[in-house]
UniProtKB/TrEMBL annotation:
The keyword Transmembrane helix applies. SMART domains: X8 (SM00768). PROSITE patterns: GLYCOSYL_HYDROL_F17. This is glucan endo-1,3-beta-D-glucosidase. GO terms for biological process: carbohydrate metabolic process; defense response. GO terms for molecular function: glucan endo-1,3-beta-D-glucosidase activity. Residues 1-29 form the signal peptide. Residues 367-451 form the X8 domain. It comes from the Eukaryota. GO terms for cellular component: plasma membrane; side of membrane. It is a lipid-anchor; GPI-anchor. It catalyses: Hydrolysis of (1->3)-beta-D-glucosidic linkages in (1->3)-beta-D-glucans.
Amino acid sequence: MMISGTMKSFYTMKTLLFSWILMVGGVSGIGANWGTQTSHPLPPSTVVQLLKDDGFQKVKLFDAEDGTMSALRNSKIEVMVGIPNDMLLTLATNVKAAEKWVSENVSSYVNDGVNIRYVAVGNEPFLQTYNGSFIQSTLPALQNIQGALIKTGLSSQVKVTVPLNADVYESKSGQPSDGDFRSDIHDLMLNIIKFLSDNGAPFTVNIYPFISLYNDPNFPVDYAFFDGTSSPVVDGSTTYNNVFDANHDTLIWALRKNGFGNLPVIVGEIGWPTDGDMNANLNFAQKFIQGFMTHISTGQGTPMRPGPIDAYLFSLIDEDEKSIQPGNFERHWGVYTFDGIPKYQLNLGMRNVGLARAKNIRYLDKKWCVFKPTISLNDANVAPSISYACANADCTSLGYKTSCGDLDAMGNISYAFNSYYQKNDQDEVACGFNNLATLTSKDPSTLNCKFVIMIETDSGFSWRLKGVRDGSVIVVYILYMSFMFLITLF
Ligand SMILES: *[C@@H]1O[C@H](CO)[C@@H](O)[C@H](O)[C@H]1NC(C)=O
Ligand SMILES: *[C@@H]1O[C@H](CO)[C@@H](O)[C@H](O)[C@H]1NC(C)=O
Ligand SMILES: *[C@@H]1O[C@H](CO)[C@@H](O)[C@H](O)[C@H]1NC(C)=O
């Protein structure tokens, strides 16, 4: 009795201490990236309530979608609003367009009580996969947006920045002190940094230890987290035990080497996915994000940049419409599932209890679309049906060592069919598959593998319209109608 009581107060003390450290350590609260590439988005007001309930004080957006921005009105949540890369060229070449963007997407919302603090001009525009498409337009767009902010009198309260992938800098030796900007964009980077510095604006960088592990099978796993010691990187008198600090400080060295050692740095994205790859799972994600929170809660910073770290977790909610070109994990970055349920517990320092879930979620009916047990697995229609379902819905949980990786062959056909059916709002036409599929009210989920039921949403309808537009649903529908017509004839 004594012991458990003591233990309990020990844990309470620890939690209180953690919260206290977060506040006193000068961390201005944790932020989250709120992306909306999803077929069944939660209502924006529900998401804003979730952010408040769980103590997120900042949010980073990838565009200025009206529903999202309006929901943030009077919430006090600090907003970094984004400009998509495909707008950069227009904003770079047309001052009036930049002024219009600021007027419509910053001034009007600021006047309406949205706490906008940053404009993110582009999103990782210098990623090598973009083949240099945005090299010319990023800096002029940044300049025009800054000019427009000055003109409207907002430039002291709203700062510009460019969220950049960590591959804009490198260290040939692997030691942070050898850090410098990538040689093909070195001069451009210096011009951008000088512009940010002249305007009191921060550098924003996205850092992904998960990707280090994903890209390199020999990467020491514990170096990706915050409690490892097996593979330190020794850099002069400094020893790095985690790749986050080492990567961050490679940037600080690069800035310092080029004369901007004091430029403020924001970590625009940091996180860990939970599915779609052998290293993407709940344990690793929880360990990484909690480790990161504890790491920054001390206010110690990194060896080269002592002090609080300003960061946005990536991401808030899973997005089932993201491109899986980078990998199958791409749709699983959320701290919450698509329907606003925390995937694992986290102490973000603002509450003593863990994360809450989104409130008042309305689900579709409890029914699933599955493979008919009477059909042979060798049926010639099976393979094309799976391909179709997976191409148009989401099968990223079906690979090796993923959440549904242990299903048998029938199980993974059912998984694919159900995914397509739910994404189409349980439209019966979407559970056809040449008669291979059938509906069931018995949940086919297993311990690790969840056969989802989608949520009700207005934009579920617009997703279906998109399907109609690209012809697939309409063809199925016409076939179905002609079939019914033939039946009535005979
Ligand atoms: C404001 O942002 C939205 C969403 O990103 C965009 O569609 C719209 O074109 C922007 N307005 C202007 C005037 O550029
Ligand atoms: C970049 O170049 C590669 C190879 O030339 C091409 O396959 C890819 O589509 C290009 N990507 C973009 C975004 O232009
Ligand atoms: C489906 O299940 C089988 C096991 O019977 C597995 O070998 C196969 O890789 C799975 N298919 C997919 C797409 O994951």
